[in-house]
Amino acid sequence: MARVMVMMSGGVDSSVAAALLREQGHDVTGVTLKLWGGESDSGCCSVADVEDARRVAAQLDIPHYVFNFSDAFDADVVEPYVGAYAAGETPNPCVECNRTMKFGRVLERARRLDYDFVATGHHARVVMTDDGPALARAVDQAKDQSYVLYMLGADELSRTLLPVGELTKTDVREHARTLGLRTAEKRESMDVCFIKRGGREAFLGARIPRRSGAIVDEAGTVVGAHDGIDAFTIGQRRGLGVAVGERRYVTDIAVGTATVTVGPRDALLQDRLRLRDVRWSRSPHDARAMLVQSRAHGTPALAALEGDEVVFASPQPRVAPGQVVAFYDGELCCGGGIVTD
Amino acid sequence: MPDRADHVYLDHAASTPMRPEAIAAMAPFLADHPGNPSGGHGAARATKTALEEARETVAAVCGCRPHEVVFTGGGSEGDNLAIKGAAWAARANDPTLDSVVTSGIEHKAVLGACDRLEREGFRVVRVPANGDGVVDVDALAGVLDEHTAVVSVMLVNNETGVRQPVEEIARLVRDRAPRAVVHTDAVQAPQWLDLAAATADVSLVAISGHKFGGPKGVGALIVRDGTELVPLVEGGGHERGLRAGTQNVPGIVAIATALLVTHRRRADETARIATLRDELEAGLAAQVSGFSVNGASASRVAGILHGTFDGVEAETLLLALDQQGVMAASGSACSSGAVDPSHVLLAMGMPRERALSSVRFSLGYASTRADVDAALAIVPEVVAKLRIT
Which positions 327-346 of B are in contact with A (Cβ < 8 Å)? Predict the structure, then answer.
């Protein structure tokens, strides 16, 4: 039996994570993070979600607490998110939240309070290997979230339990139904928790000056105008407002001039990605033959890692600067980095 | 970690256990006496009699006449009825009465009511407190004028336990803003102070049952004659038209009983609890470095010890204490249960980080020496453990 602090968002996955840990005989404490003090109705930390987590904890007969990390969340997640957009990047705030909040402050607080492990409802697994604990893909490949946990090293992994990674999502819901948990049928949250549904532009518009500019084609010919680059991301097809024959995609965003370049799908392809903040959690068998994933549920591509560069075996759709790539050796995540260009 | 204690409840300022006398008094009105006090038959007369006897009891303890007692659903409702009701009534009589004066250390029920009035066009002034948590009377005097409709300052602060100069404020208002109505949120007071003496010059006084051994969800607002209020809930004319709805007779019987028992035992209980609180305070000061008492040089009620533990997050400390069986509180819990930095401490000029390291231990009539001993065996050790690394 271990002392486990499980982070309960009020969703079905973390509810079942808590239930499984309890069934395994652990001494379990549930905590819900209040991360965002601003307005949000899709948020992971609304009063209703806290109440769901609290009720599930009561059903499981485990103590439950709320941690107010809204100051830290603002400083470590929201401000960098806004700053990244201001710099023309497309950041992944969930990754930053995992790094700085869940596996940063909460893990630290749990350690201070004598907990052996923290746990979450992420669909991923911690497996033991000859080289120590490793992050592995979830049993349910379609729901795998190891990508957003790529930053976890041996130290964090040795103190982390991810019980629902062993189940399919269907099994998770079934388990919740069997236990009669009120979160069994709860809808999955898909959005950035501090932004209202579909409101990224409004959120950013209130925080960074709107930068209007031209939309140009590959040759530099102006084909349209836009009223704010924050509405665009690399690879975007919708909402370009450009009427040309074939489908056009955003292929480049020049922040300095607020110029958005559009082009055919082929123009999005590239063979290399440059990264910053590369971190390895384990050594791969062969860094020249890794599976590289650059989207939350994207198909991984075969590539070689050469220093800070990913060299794809075949050209891949361009990835926006600021996005995360994770490196896999088979099922095991070995690390990752942030795209610079 | 030290041995776990069994249920050391040090959160009486949040809520108290009900006094046995109050439970016994309310019991017959849960099943035996179903009558609606507004009715005309025998069963109704039985509950009507109990209701009016309860009103007389509350009036006697609060130093007012029975018809000046309006039963409510608790402290927050009393504060809202008093502040909004008086402000609306004043403005209806004279549109130039458009200013409300309160303090920055009030309970959220008072601040929330004032925020609402501000959105409706009233001018709201929130006077600060000094470093010991006492409302700045000079600042308050300076903002009173012929436009002041309502002045609301609490009698005892719910976080620090610091007694506020309500009598002095009432005198100032009489001199400088004679048309203004004075309200006091006295929710934390009945266990420790003689309400009749402390609120003699105050027009509106809100109390809440569960702070002195009565039930949750029932309170009273003293509305002295000559005070005009616009009701929040309108309907069948109950409570002199100030609070429509069938009265919560079991709760009202219980709050009156609890208030009377509290009143009779107040001197003894206050002396006993002050001794326990002082021992807890002295013990923590001796055993915990970097511990400081808030409101230390102000007049504080006997039951509250509010302190700051340098370098320890209150959220972490409260969790660790809870797991050891010691139940205390910090700041004001918002509806989600998260701990926000206390607006009271911030209004006293305390830096945010220190506010987030502050904890309230509150004792009540049910507290024992064993509670204090257990707390002194556990708190210093837990604090030391949390400070390592």
Answer: 335-340
Closest-CA distance, B339 to chain A, in angstroms, reads 6
Domain B8-18+266-387 coded CATH 3.90.1150.10:
yes
Chain A: residue whose CA lies nearest to B313? A109
At A36-77, the pLDDT tens digits run 765 444 444 567 888 999 999 999 999 999 999 988 999 999
DSSP assignment string, A99-138: IIIIIIIIHHHHHHTT-SEEE---SEEEEEETTEEEEEE-
Q: What is the pLDDT of residues A195-212, one digit of tens each?
A: 876 678 788 888 888 888
Q: Which architecture, in CATH terms, is A3-122+162-179?
A: 3-Layer(aba) Sandwich (3.40)
Residue the block writes with tokens 């950041």: A91
Contacts of B316 in chain A (CB under 8 A): 109, 112-113
Pick the CATH number of B20-261 from 3.40.50.1820, 3.40.640.10, 3.30.420.40, 1.10.760.10: 3.40.640.10
Closest by Cβ to A68, choosing from B338, B386, B389: B338
State the Cα–Cα distance between residues B308 and B292, nearest whole angstrom. 5
Q: How far is A281 from chain B (nearest CA, A)?
A: 25
Task: Answer yes or no: are the C-beta atoms of B72 and B220 closer than 8 Å.
Answer: yes
Mean pLDDT of all residues in A143-162? 96
Q: Which CATH class is domain A268-339?
A: mainly beta
Q: Are residues A113 and B315, on separate chains, in Cβ contact within 8 Å?
A: no
SS3 content of chain B, % helix, strand, coil (to 5): 45, 15, 40
Query: Which residues of chain A make contact with B385, given a CB cutoff of 8 A?
Result: 114
Compare CB distances from A112 to B316, B323, B335 and report the shortest one's residue: B316
List, for residues A88-147, the tens digit of each pLDDT value: 888 999 999 999 999 999 999 999 999 999 999 999 999 999 989 999 999 999 999 999
Q: Flag whether the ipTM exceeds 0.95.
A: no
Contact list in B for residue A54 (CB cut-off 8 A) is 337
Q: Are A189 and A197 in contact (CB under 8 A)?
A: no
Give the pLDDT of residue A90.
Answer: 87
The arrangement of secondary structure in A209-263, i.e. its CATH architecture, is: Roll (2.30)
The distance of B14 to chain A (nearest Cα, Å) reads 17
